[in-house]
Amino acid sequence: MRKKSASGRKYSQRTLKILWGRAAGRCAVPECRLDLLVEATDYDPVVVIGDIAHIEASSDEGPRANRGLSVRDRDEHDNLILLCKNCHARFDGHKQTNTVAAIRNLRNDHEAWVRASLPERGRSRTGWNVLLLQGEHPIDADQLDEALAPDYQRGKPTVVTIPPGKPWQETFRDLTTSIRSYLGQRDAFDCRFAVFPLAPVSACLAAGYLLTNRPRVRLFQHHRKTNSWTWARSPVPAEAPRVKGVAAKRTTRAGELAICFHLSSPISHADLPMPTSALLGVIDIAVPEPSVHWLEASAQLDALGTTAGEVFEKLLAKYPNACWHLFYAGPAPGAVKVGQQLNPTMTPPTQLYEFSRSTRPRYSPSILLNSSPT
User: Following DSSP, what letter does each residue of 188-226 receive, concatenated?
Assistant: First the structure.
């Protein structure tokens, strides 16, 4: 007669640490997730109320037994799950309902929940919904987790590609469809959005305009020197850009304004596609020393967004009948941040421009925002 085999329940210290650590000391059943340690009192010690349960039985006659599984493998982490006593008894009693595959998937899902949800694991309770805004060069999605750490990415990223040579207003329609669909799948006030932009300036400004500043948006800069999206760990002074050109008095005259953002390089008024004498004014928003290396920390984006929002609000009050022309020389995430400050319900028709060294004038009109439908 064949001798029955059983594991003897000889768990190694390594196996126990992996099992309890990955489960965070909780029952793996999502409807339960009971804390399996009852705290000590002044009179009694800590009580362990959890069971180390076998997915495939410890013995040849147990529930979900696999006679081909070696005695040693029966006590390895891959065959174990941490349960409270009630769930353990239910799993073993309902052998047909709780199959090996179902229990193993439940254990794996619970461990994934622990990694993503418990702050003591070094990660945020809420993940970030990722948007990749790319031009002709695709974004390497493998770099995103490092940039988001200690937070994590929720699901797969949404990728919006801006193909070169496509008419700008057609590009804007496609961008509108993509971003509204992206936002529409989620509660904008309950979720967090991480945007990785590496696209033309006009597309980034338009993306920010479509995202608005209502949802919580975290922006990232691609750092060419390190080929990464991770912000500098050391603090960087976040000096607010300086503003010039806003009229002291309100004017009700109809006309046009040029709004210039000097961040990565100065914008020469001579490069504008219209004579400045024909404008109601030229508004300059500039950092003290414009440079391609200006943006090093996310706090600088916050200062830029605050300044842009304040300027746009002043322009609405000072020039209530003006149309705007927006010229931007700066990094992609800064363009998204500036675009977020353009209020879709209040901002007048705003023409965006794209820069090219090979054309005259250097700035060509691209996307028109808040235009009346034709």
Answer: TTT-EEEEEEES-HHHHHHHHHHH-SSSEEEE---BTTT
Cis peptide leading into residue 273 (ω within 30°) = no
**Domains in the chain: boundaries:** 13-121, 128-219, 242-369
Cα dihedral angle (265, 271, 275, 276), rounded to 10 degrees?
Answer: 10
Looking at residue 179, its pLDDT comes to: 87
- What letter would DSSP give residue 264? S
The edge-to-edge listing of strands for the beta sheet with 192-198 is 158-161, 128-134, 192-198, 216-219
CATH number at 242-369: 3.40.50
Q: pTM here?
A: 0.68
Model confidence pLDDT, tens digit, residues 6-60: 656 789 999 999 999 999 999 999 889 999 998 888 888 999 999 999 999 998 8
Q: Which two tokens stand for residue 199?
A: 């696209």
Rounded CA gap, 160 and 131, in Å? 7
Out of 141-145, 301-305, 333-337, pick the least confident. 141-145
| Burial status of residue 167 (CB atoms within 10 A of its CB: 0-12, 13-18, 19 or more) | exposed
Task: Say how far apart CA 219 and CA 42 lie, in whole Å.
Answer: 50
